[in-house]
Amino acid sequence: MANTTLIIGAGIGGLTTAALLAKAGHDVTVLEAHVYGGGCAGTFYHQGYRFDAGATLAGGFNPGGPHDQVAQRLGIAWPIVAAEPAWRTHLPDRVFTRFGDPTRWQVELSRATADLPDQAAILRFFERAETVSDAAWAFAGRRPAWPPSSVADIFRLAGALRPDTLITLPHLFESMGTWASRSGVMSRPARAFLDAQLLISAQTTAVNANAVFGAAAIDLPRKGVNHVRGGIGGIAQTLVDAIRRAGGKVLFRQQVTALETKGGRIVAATTNKGLRVECERCVANLTPWDLARLLGEAAPAQLARETASRPEQWGAFTLYLGVEDSGLPEDCDHHQVIGDYDLPLGETNSVFVSLSLRGDPGRAPPGMRAITMSTHTKAGQWWALRQAPGGKQAYAEKVSAYTERMLDRAERAIPGLRQKIRLLKPGTPVTFRTFTRRHRGGVGGFPFTSLLTARGPGVGLTNTWLVGDSIFPGQSTAGVTMGALRVADAVERDSR
């Protein structure tokens, strides 16, 4: 049983780790509660449509990027189509089209900021951010052990340092907001655009986002973002197929309900179907809260303290739409709409609208498109309404109000959208909990306000690692995959 590895959860992080270990000869079993893989990057069927449950765009497939590294190691091809432009951001008084092509993006940034007094500072800031991003992605691609938890980790971290890393040093301990202010980026449209980009990819705004992490986050379009044919769940299915070809097992409808520990190690898991799987090592594609719940009294003290003190993740309010294709935008499939400069982002003031790839027969009936539309929301308020005595009506009214406000925002990007809707299905964090089994329906991992507070994969058990958006480098399929590469390496070292 020396190379017997249990993976709990078939999100992108868990499946990537499992595929790499199965390819390396490990006896791998993946247990997933749902009927499909992907987690937050999963795709579900409903009335002839395939909707992306949460994530809609995927990056990291560029040469040398994390998904490309995985493809090279596994000998697979991803079912992707480049999205160019990546998305269009609609501010109250202007529009930015976020091209991946550097030349087109520079022209667009100059156009969109031509009337702003800080234009020169804006252009310099984004140019510098690209340079810092290149260094950050290169450093992360060498899979440093961050944050280090042992002397061996420190040596591996030192081995990942290169001369190009030096450019990140002035920004290691400052926020994107501080960096932008220091650079002279002060106008309201420029700061709102920066905040909007960071909210998508870093789950926070410039005031709180670490500068190095933030530079990499806002630079995803230049690295390349993609549609996935058949929906973003195609990433997960490709990995499931790779695991099974390598002799590993992926078992759906098997929700882990209990974990057995012995001597500070997880030794077995039991599912709702009565299946018991023994293991020498365990990788948990779970949030810290969900792992702590499964461990119960056996949860290490550090994990118990973390889950008691760490703020909850964002939730998402989501609309899933089936719409007529005629008259929809021809040149861009993804739109971010900011409603009011004077209101905080989220709670329907910032809405992300993703249209399925035109001509993808797996996503919608002929002549139709699937749309996933989302806004950040505080998850607790939805659970409070849902669970309150007599709260059913108030919950329904809140769903209706959010739906109408989001459609209002979306019609700025897609005029006449309401008239094209043939199917509408709303979802709250309560709904998302059903899709993903994540703690209170949270999305997007933890905001990286400081590299010093980034979370590593350790949980206080000698044979167990976390993987997914909770660990460094965090959110997005690219970030999660980079973390999975690191965890797979750690499991390999432990098995030798």
What does this 3D model show about the protein?
This protein is an alpha/beta fold and 496 residues long. It has three domains: 4-81 and 229-310 and 444-495, FAD/NAD(P)-binding domain (3-Layer(bba) Sandwich); 102-223, no CATH class; 314-441, no CATH class. It is 39% helix and 20% strand. A seven-stranded mixed β-sheet has the order 8-7-16-17-18-15-19, with helices on both faces. A five-stranded parallel β-sheet has the order 10-2-1-14-20. The protein is globular and about 65 Å long. The mean pLDDT is 92.
* Largest sheet, strands/sense/barrel: 7 strands, mixed
CATH architecture of the largest domain: 3-Layer(bba) Sandwich
Helix content: 25-40%
In total, the number of domains comes to 3
Number of helices: 17
SSE layout:
Elements (H helix, E strand, L loop, with lengths): L3 E5 L3 H12 L3 E5 L11 E4 L2 E4 L5 E2 L6 H9 L5 E3 L4 E4 L4 E4 L3 H11 L6 H23 L9 H10 L15 H7 L5 H15 L8 H8 L1 H4 L1 E4 L4 H13 L3 E3 L4 E6 L4 E6 L4 E3 L2 E4 L3 H8 L5 H9 L5 E10 L9 E5 L11 E6 L12 E10 L1 H9 L3 H23 L3 H4 E7 L1 H8 L27 E3 L9 H20 L1
Parallel strand pairs: 1-2, 1-14, 2-10, 7-16, 14-20
Antiparallel strand pairs: 3-4, 5-9, 6-9, 7-8, 11-12, 12-13, 15-18, 15-19, 16-17, 17-18
Features:
496 residues, alpha/beta, 7-stranded mixed sheet, 5-stranded parallel sheet, 17 helices, globular
Give a brief outline of the structure.
The protein has 496 residues and is of the alpha/beta class. It has helices at 12-23, 66-74, 102-112, 119-141, 151-160, 176-182, 188-202, 211-218, 220-223, 233-245, 288-295, 301-309, 379-387, 391-413, 417-420, 429-436, 476-495; strands spanning 4-8, 27-31, 43-46, 49-52, 58-59, 80-82, 87-90, 95-98, 225-228, 249-251, 256-261, 266-271, 276-278, 281-284, 315-324, 334-338, 350-355, 368-377, 421-427, 464-466.
